[in-house]
Amino acid sequence: MKIEKIVAGGYGLARENGKIYLVRGAYTGEDVEVSIEKDGKDVALCRVEKIKHASQKRQKPICEHFGMCGGCDWMDLDYETQLEYKKEIFVDQIKHVAKVDVTKPAIIKTSPYGYRNKAEFVIKDGKLGYNSKNSHNFVEIKRCHIISDKLNEMKGKVEKVDLKDFHHIVLREDGNKEMVIFVSQKKCETPEIDADEIISLVNRKHVVVSGEESVKKGKGFLIVKMDDIKYRLSAKAFFQISYEGAKILSQKVKEYAGSGKRLLDLYCGTGFFTLELSKNFEKLTGIEESSASISNANENAKSNGISNVEFFSSKVENFKFGTYDVIVADPPRAGIGKEIIQSIVQANPERFVYVSCDVTTFARDTHELEQKRYKIKDVTLVDLFPQTHHFEIVSLFERE
Ligand SMILES: C[S@@+](CC[C@H](N)C(=O)[O-])C[C@H]1O[C@@H](n2cnc3c(N)ncnc32)[C@H](O)[C@@H]1O
């Protein structure tokens, strides 16, 4: 089977007798034998069994867990080619789903390894690991090459204590201090370990970072400094997983948002974009469903002496939109969807800045926005997730 191109989801696409085969682990130009994992009438999902002709762009992955662990699906691909493929995937989706012709956008790279400031480990028999791709098979991890050195060191410390009562361990760091989050199904004794912040969360596993929180050691938050603003980050609060990537994102969002009177920041997390943009607008409003993130956002505004922002803890779906010069949205993978696009269009902003981590929902939403007078004017990709097929999209739409 000949791989024609790389498509969304990181699959290699092949065609035979009018049917499409999406092949995990195969790259453009390769000739592969596959086994079918999920068969459909027009499309089959496959995985590689044998590579008959390999791409010159393959490289030896630096991680011994590659192929078993569900994390880095592109670690066997040279980094420059990863960047090139991400641009191709973007153009392909925009052309076929959004039905808009765009030129290949620029992609800004970040450090290819050691970039993650947060790691979520599963625990099995006292060992820390990740789940394998598309399954709950446990893969014990000795060293993870995409998390920071500090997180790998913390992992070593955590593995020395008795973990039998816990189902997950979440590690976070702010470049200076460390936070260890012990997650259990019921209340239990939290081990003493050498870390600045120790938090316990009690929950039923569905969403790992959720449930009843107690601070066992420290203040209950980390402090991340970006340019001249300090962000408070509690255990449950969202923050971009790469600090280097976060700086690039905020610069692009600032460039696209420009300045004006009123700005609305949808899915604002701990208020990152709202606060970064606070000097460029007279009044800014941030909306976010997580109340933990919203309390961090309010603390962040107060501690940085920023008084022209307001934050509301609400689902975007339930928020009553006013009128704004600029709207920014950075939703989770599910994207924005028709209903919220309708509210955005009614709010009539001059510019809409859409930050997305999922190219398929982004393309779907772009199609809808283009039908509703908002035309895509500029796009920059940011490689926030090296060694994986994921990337971040920062885009500017303007009202016609
Ligand atoms: C990708 S993060 C963006 C955070 C923020 N822009 C930042 O850079 O830190 C998406 C955020 O959307 C929030 N969220 C998810 N679904 C939501 C909804 N329906 N309404 C409001 N917020 C939501 C999540 O809690 C998360 O904080």
Automatic annotation (TrEMBL):
Q: Which residues form the active site?
A: C357
CDD domains from the xrefs? Answer: AdoMet_MTases
As one GO molecular function, the record gives: rRNA (uridine-C5-)-methyltransferase activity
What Pfam families has UniProt attached to this entry? tRNA_U5-meth_tr
* InterPro entries for this protein: MeTrfase_TrmA_AS, MeTrfase_TrmA_CS, NA-bd_OB-fold, SAM-dependent_MTases_sf, U5_MeTrfase_fam
| Superkingdom, natural source | Bacteria
List positions binding S-adenosyl-L-methionine.
Answer: Q240, Y267, E288, D330
What PROSITE patterns does the annotation carry? SAM_MT_RNA_M5U, TRMA_1, TRMA_2
What keywords is this UniProt entry annotated with? Methyltransferase, S-adenosyl-L-methionine, Transferase
Q: Which GO terms describe its biological process?
A: rRNA base methylation
**Which family does the entry's similarity section mention?**
Belongs to the class I-like SAM-binding methyltransferase superfamily. RNA M5U methyltransferase family.
Indicate what this protein is called per its UniProt record. Answer: Class I SAM-dependent RNA methyltransferase
From which organism does this entry originate?
Mesoaciditoga lauensis
Mind giving the lineage of the organism this protein is from?
Answer: Bacteria, Thermotogati, Thermotogota, Thermotogae, Mesoaciditogales
